[in-house]
Amino acid sequence: MTTVRLPLFPLNSVLFPGLVLPLNVFEERYRAMMRELLKTGEDEPRRFAVVAIRDGREVAPTAPGLPDQTALPERGPTAGFGADPVQAFHRVGCIADAATIREREDGSFEVLATGTARVRLLSVDASGPYLVAELEELPEDAGDGAGALAEGVLRAFRNYQKRLAGARERSLTSGADLPDEPSVVSYLVAAAAVLDIPAKQRLLQAPDTATRLAEELKLLRAETAVIRHLPSLPAVDLTRAPTSPN
């Protein structure tokens, strides 16, 4: 078992390998993380791990609030995640490689990272200024019939996009922009489809590419059927991950 220790960045979203992650970093615990990553040479990867939050808050409370107006704001690396933070997170996440870390005048950071590989969360160390995780790297096995499943998923995804664009009266990614490598297809579709965090998390932690693609095929067909009966959809950009407010 290959393990690695990396800074941990919990989010209210799921990061997939190959997908871009923009971050707006303003909390002190994550500022400290970025300052440490900047010490890494530019010719070396500036890596941290991203996990989706199962039970907790992405941004810690910073002022007293209801029901106790006198409560002190939560501080420290575990703020918002409880006494045992590992229980607050989904156990499969993704390593992110920060291609750009730019510090602003106010001390916050603008970060642009890319997901690289899946990892399993083993433990969390909260003794420093930010969380550090012990992680097990997960292989990406193709599974049986991944190639044929990828073709089916691409067809279903194109139909899904057409229905989605029709409901929103706009066009989305064209079929020409889509890849054909099964694992890349599986992650792109998982990121682009309009699904909740539990559904995206199940896709991330699928045991192999074929299993992920088979699940996506079912989800796309179900979602397309739902969209067919909707007059319109909310005006949100459904194919781009939102910038995290951290």
From TrEMBL:
Entries under InterPro entries matching the protein: Lon_prtase_N (IPR003111), Lon_prtase_N_sf (IPR046336), PUA-like_sf (IPR015947)
UniProt xrefs under Pfam families: LON_substr_bdg
Limits of the Lon N-terminal domain: 6-224
SMART domains from the UniProt entry: LON (SM00464)
Domain of life: Bacteria
Protein name: LON peptidase substrate-binding domain-containing protein
Species annotation: Streptomyces flavotricini
